Amino acid sequence: MSRRTVLPGAGTLGVLGGGQLGRMFVHAAQELGYRTVVLDPDPDSPAGLVAHRHLRCDYLDPQGLDELAGLCDAVTTEFENVPAEALARLARTLPVAPAAEAVAICQDRAREKAHFTACGVPCAPHAVIADEAQLQAVDPGLLPGILKTARLGYDGKGQVGVRTPEELAAAWDELQRVPCVLEKRLDLAFEVSVIVARNAQGELVHFPLQQNLHRDGILAVTSVPAPQVTPELQAQAVRAAEAVAASMGYVGVLCVEFFVLADGTLAANEMAPRPHNSGHYTLDACDVSQFGLQVRAMAGLPLPAPRLHSPAIMLNLLGDLWFRHGEAETTPPWDAVLALPGTHLHLYGKVSARRGRKMGHLNVTGASAAQVREVALRCSELLG
Ligand code: ADP
Ligand code: MG
């Protein structure tokens, strides 16, 4: 449906999905006086707990979707695995950002890589494996590689490292022979990501590049400004992410993750049609956050270029921190953490901790990158 501006304080914004990303979206929307509606089946969903309305139903429940459409002036999503049909149904009667088609591309590693290539953005050498013939035809030059399910992978799940054609065949069996992408294992120097936002008027802005450290396939630490990134590399990554967004006519916030290879070149890894864990530092280190831009983009508001006003380090807080003293859940020493200068604690209100579960994040800001590093290190010591 065609777009009109939904002015702050004069409308209702909806989100599909009630996780932490939905919760921080709701907070940003409420800051501008919007009413908010979350659709998520989980009665304890972090976003549902803070929204004006929580529709507890399945993402494909036609009645629930129609109720959401009736309540809202615009709708967004907080995760890419929302069925594209749900977005398409909503789009019949109200603006949906990002559009179903863009989400469908991001949902599928094969389509995602094809889109990068069409935009002239390099990515890892790869092959699609969706049937036996494609498995047999795989170029041995792609080994050693990583076999990844084309859909539904996250935080390193749905991936198997393979060194030989035999291991590849076994890995595909292990992944239930669902459509997969085999990627050549690249020699990574480090990893970065860039977040852009675009509105329906075509305004396109970006945050600075962030450098990301993963542990066990899960993002652990993000640093901004990216310590190892040259201005040329930064410009190249931003140009690539902007091309990827603009060529889809994208509306919303988009994150593109890149590998920086040992020879200094960039390869796009994957993208997310929503705010991203690596952009959580923007809540405290920028004059507008990635969630603020998500709200503005979907509401058809102007998108001024965001400004980083402080160096920052973000530490992801996984449920493991709640089990440092064995099996009994204990609250980490937040009082000691908050006694340090420039610490900003964000907890997602999840009812119980589990190992590997994202419970919150801690942003550290300060006058210099060295000071931020020092405080972040002290926080890790207190929490570790
Ligand atoms: P997820 O959807 O789980 O985030 P990714 O494709 O981003 O999956 O892979 C998770 C991590 O695994 C990456 O951040 C990177 O550290 C490593 N990785 C993935 N693909 C490759 C590759 N082709 N070469 C080297 N490392 C890789
Ligand atoms: Mg990733």
From TrEMBL:
Pfam families reported in the protein's UniProt record: ATP-grasp, PurK_C, RS_preATP-grasp-like
UniProt keyword annotations, A-Z: ATP-binding, Ligase, Nucleotide-binding, Purine biosynthesis
The reaction(s) this protein catalyses: 5-amino-1-(5-phospho-beta-D-ribosyl)imidazole + hydrogencarbonate + ATP = 5-carboxyamino-1-(5-phospho-D-ribosyl)imidazole + ADP + phosphate + 2 H(+)
Protein known as: N5-carboxyaminoimidazole ribonucleotide synthase
Enzyme class: ligase
Name of the gene encoding the protein in the UniProt record: purK
Matching InterPro entries: ATP-grasp (IPR011761), ATP-grasp_carboxylate-amine (IPR003135), ATP_grasp_subdomain_1 (IPR013815), PreATP-grasp_dom_sf (IPR016185), PurK (IPR005875), PurK_C (IPR040686), PurT/PurK_preATP-grasp (IPR054350), Rudment_hybrid_motif (IPR011054)
GO cellular component: cytosol
Function: Catalyzes the ATP-dependent conversion of 5-aminoimidazole ribonucleotide (AIR) and HCO(3)- to N5-carboxyaminoimidazole ribonucleotide (N5-CAIR). Catalyzes the ATP-dependent conversion of 5-aminoimidazole ribonucleotide (AIR) and HCO(3)(-) to N5-carboxyaminoimidazole ribonucleotide (N5-CAIR).
HAMAP family for the chain: PurK (MF_01928)
The protein's assembly and partners: Homodimer.
Phylogenetic classification of the source organism: Bacteria, Pseudomonadati, Pseudomonadota, Betaproteobacteria, Burkholderiales
Family of the protein in this entry: Belongs to the PurK/PurT family.
Residue sites binding ATP per the record: 109, 148, 153-159, 183-186, 191, 214, 269-270
GO terms of biological process kind: 'de novo' IMP biosynthetic process
Pathway(s): Purine metabolism; IMP biosynthesis via de novo pathway; 5-amino-1-(5-phospho-D-ribosyl)imidazole-4-carboxylate from 5-amino-1-(5-phospho-D-ribosyl)imidazole (N5-CAIR route): step 1/2
NCBIfam families the UniProt entry points to: PRK06019.1-2 (NF004676), PRK06019.1-3 (NF004677), PRK06019.1-5 (NF004679), purK (TIGR01161)
Domain of life assignment: Bacteria
PROSITE patterns in the cross-refs: ATP_GRASP (PS50975)
Protein's UniProt keywords contain Nucleus: no
Domain ATP-grasp: 113-299
Source organism: Caldimonas thermodepolymerans
SUPFAM superfamilies on file: Glutathione synthetase ATP-binding domain-like, PreATP-grasp domain, Rudiment single hybrid motif
EC number(s) stated in the UniProt entry for this protein: 6.3.4.18
One Gene Ontology term of the molecular function aspect: 5-(carboxyamino)imidazole ribonucleotide synthase activity
